[in-house]
Amino acid sequence: MNCGRNTSRNASISDSLYGLGFIGALVFYIQYATSFLTALIGIGKSLLWPAFLIYDLLVFLSK
Question: What pTM does this model have?
């Protein structure tokens, strides 16, 4: 039951934020790539940037 909430708008905002974060992370990691292998690793890291962000945030908060 939707209860009158516009969940499609919230999903599009979070998808847009993730997309911008992906592009930013991709540019950051590719910029420092020195070989094809490090570029591929950078692409993988840019897909998983939210996991890195939350992990580092939790480590910071636990200190």
Answer: 0.66
